[in-house]
Amino acid sequence: MPKTSAATPPLLRRVNASKLLGVLSSHGVMTGTGLIEATGLTRATVHAVCNDLIGMGWVVELDPVRDDTTVGRPSRRFEFNSDAGSVLGIDVGAGKTTVVVANLRGETLAKAVRSFAEVKEPADRTELVDEAVADAMKAADVTDDQVIAAGVGVAAPVDRGGNILADDEFWRRFDAGLTARLSKAHGWPALLENDANLAVLGEHWRGQGQGVDDLVVLLAGERFGSGLMESGRLLHGSRGGAGEMVYLKLVEGVGDTHGIARMARERGAAAIADPSVETVLRELAGSEPVTAEMVFAAAAQGDRAAADVLEIVGQRTARVVATLGILFNPELVVIGGAVADAAAALLPSIEELLATFTSTPPRVAVSSLGDTIVSVGAVRHALNYVEQNALDLTLTARRF
């Protein structure tokens, strides 16, 4: 008869601590009774674990409040110590890196950006990321020994262990020793994750996806990428490839992974290059290359050529969303990234076409997080690490 494994007391203690910290970090002052109701734990467990967390520096106990309606001993009151440390959220994008320093409630303390415009080698990107980290930490007045963890997002498949596909030279260049260098130089763990996976974490935490546990975020700038959440759980696949969209090359009417911004820009440039096409895009662009923003702006002014471009882009995006709806059946697909605000103009046509492509079309929305969506998710990723490992981070927390 096979042996059955039971959760050991230390494991239960860790799980309960994570659960309590998750509740306390997202609320203000809570009583023991409130924590019991929010977590489903017993009174004895709540008080025992809170005592542990108070001793470790994660939680502060406030003076009890007594009023005329109180019978017996007043309830103990607890508050999460959001100043026990800091976390970083690092987005290593195609054109720039964004570093956010946040407290343990996820409130932004400082932000720094570095452009990759002049970068030629992956090692140069790593240098600029480190500079942005230093700038953000200095602006937040945070030192290395106050940072508990950093979430790091890259546009490459990352497995559950935080590793990029080791046998793929193309993907491996996205890390270029970045996380190892950050951890060695600063002493805190740098937790690598796919950028679209971080986007779905950020959207579920602070965006349109709050309260939606079957969720897809479609990053739709230069190339399509998707982060997948099922029943509130992030999907990685066996090697980190869940959500990779190279399959779009096989989809009729799509044919490649080019995102909304790239499609609008390239088709807008083609319209300008055709002397038979009348379009205000020529005036908007002048001597500069046409951009996706120009195409959306021209369409908003009633320009026919720009509207035709967006019609094609909308049809193509609808097919992409439909494939995600068919494969994963999410409740909601959120279009994210720097192009999200402009993409709102595409929603009516996308929603209309979806009903013709699938019998279970998801709702579609655009993200309100703009180009911070990945860095917000990176902060959430770091906070998840803090909550899950709080009992192992006692000595770090006690420094503050």
Walk me through this protein's architecture.
This protein has about 400 residues and is an alpha/beta fold. The protein contains 15 helices and 13 strands. The chain has helices at about 10-25, 30-40, 45-55, 120-140, 170, 180-185, 195-205, 260-275, 280-285, 290-300, 305-330, 340-345, 345-355, 375-390, 395; strands spanning about 30, 60, 75-80, 85-90, 95-105, 110-115, 145-155, 190-195, 215-220, 225-230, 235, 330-335, 365. The protein has a five-stranded mixed beta sheet with strand order 6-5-4-7-8. Strands 11-10-9-12-13 form a five-stranded mixed beta sheet, sandwiched between helices. A hairpin with a 3-residue loop joins strand 4 and strand 5. Helix 7 crosses helix 14 (about 375-390). It is globular. The N and C termini lie far apart (about 50 Å). Residues about 1-5 and about 395-400 have low confidence and may be disordered.
Keywords for this entry:
disordered N terminus, 13 strands, 5-stranded mixed beta sheet, 43% helix, alpha/beta, disordered C terminus
